Amino acid sequence: MPKDFDAMENSNQSLNPNIHEVSALRRALLKTGAVLPMLSLSACAGLTFSGEKKLGFKGISASAADRIRVPEGYVTQVLAPWGEAVGIAGNMPAFKEDASNSAEEQAAQMGMHHDGMHFYPLEKNRGLLVQNHEYVDDGLLHPDGMANWNLDKVRKSQAAHGLSVIEIEQKGDRWQMVRPSRYARRVTANTPHRVAGPAAGHALMRTAADPEGKTILGTFNNCASGITPWGTYLSGEENFRFYFAKEGTLTPHEQRWGLTKKAFFGWGPTDARFDVDKNPNEFNRSGWIVELDPYDPTSTPVKRTAMGRAAHEGATVALTKDRRAVVYSGEDARFEYIYKFVSRDAVREGGAKANADLLDHGTLFVARFDADGTGRWLPLTHGQHGLDAARGFADQGEVVIKARQASDHLGGTKMDRPEWLAVDVDTLTVFCSLTNNTARGGAGVPGVDAANPRAKNNMGSVIRWREKGDLDATTFTWDHLVLAGDPANSRAEAKGNIKGDVFPCPDGLCFDKRGVLWIQTDAFASELNKGEFVNMGNNQMLACDPTSGEIRRFLTGPVNCEITGATFSADGCTMFINVQHPGETPAERSDPKAPDRYSTWPHGVKGQRPRSATVVIRKTDGGLIGT
Ligand code: FEO
Ligand code: CA
Ligand code: CA
Ligand code: CA
Fold first, then answer.
1. 336: Cβ below 6 Å to ligand 1?
2. Are 266 and 146 in contact (CB under 8 A)?
3. CB of 134 closer than 6 angstroms to any ligand 1 atom
4. Which of 5, 353, 432, 585 has its Cβ near the most Cβ atoms within 10 Å?
């Protein structure tokens, strides 16, 4: 989001100990388990494959150019930009370049600000692309931007949020949208969602419009995503606090979740759902992980509350050896936490229907990274370790609704904005990007710790941990894969230790089938190409061989975009990524009179609005991406 969002949430004023301190809980836990020896994670093995070199392409230079650049031997194609009709039969409105499409039309078109995304195969050369539309730039979304703000504009903004499902087809070496498609759909900030898990029907989830607390309208600020082994899509509701406002005195609970008097998105004055003075519990109904079955276009999306409420970046799923689901999720806010959910039951045969409640039963944990290179998963379970009524947790529903307060009490480690996670199931190693935290070490906030070792951390890092035994482990060993930055910087905290091409602010992470870790970046538009970022160019995507630690630049994006949303076709020969907010302004919102001020991507036409879009990446010889 714009620079303003670097005034990123910092509502963790809890006094839970830094990892240098030993809490009563830690002493109790240490008594029950031996202290683990430090394990060298740089010896990540198990991802070897017939002597093939993992990074087979020639790295490219950093760039400030307003276009996509990829290595020699690769080609790209733009697919499904903001405003393109998704392909609902009988409802395929054309995009209007002056942004004059109505809210109703927008609800049948690709949303804005493409983010997390997954490919779901269909028969032959077809597949579904399911993706998040994280937020909107109201300066670009309406012909006159924020001027004359009214309910129609709110509705269009809500319609440009949420998820989209499109069908795509490969024709030769190109991909195209299939329209109409029976699968095509949009989920917006007004689509009904079912609530499942321990917070379903909870008193804190009930509103005048939904007295049962089991149906929530909409999902928004959907950031990263996950794919389940049973074929559904998971989406993290991230910075939901920017949509709600409360004029009255904030409760400690509302303060802890960063509620403010004025919302960045101006929905509240015209849509009372977002006015917390009028609807106090509505604020509790966001910040969940949403599950969608893209293969069933009539399915109702579900908010899965057992995985906890958080500013969820995304949700990354892997399986234990006995096939229980393990879902990792970071909370992208300053000094917030990393979570893991372990399902009670094993995944059943029979797809989405057979696993309709799999994510409703299990144990939620928060991570604590200790200074000796070991770590603990602390259970957010009602009745254990003081998570009881006396401390404000009446039941498990209240524990998950107040997951931050529960994690404060347990002593989770306050991280530098955890973003995407990726799991190497062969080595039981989990990677998490910690994008940045420029507040670290400042007045009145936590100082550095072993896992978050840099003050005024504007460059970010990728941390990794190896689970002890299986992915349901309660202990792990950890280190950093890389501290991002540029060795040419004079400030020690901004240098990093990258083996290879320099980059700032890792965000998107994913493994391909060969075990290459793809890293996507999201540095602020206000910081790119100057100061400590001067040598690192526009936001980009790099490939990392996690065995050697080598990192090589694969793609550079257009001006002021972020690169996000990596996924692959079933054969691994097409990679799909998203270019989010090309031409983002360092100010709050774009000027509708000068929408092309920073970028004209992807069309290259002066005067027209830049548009977030999916990008198809292929090798000219048709081979595997990255070879
Ligand atoms: Fe939506 Fe944390 O990026
Ligand atoms: Ca961004
Ligand atoms: Ca992100
Ligand atoms: Ca980000």
1. no
2. yes
3. yes
4. 432
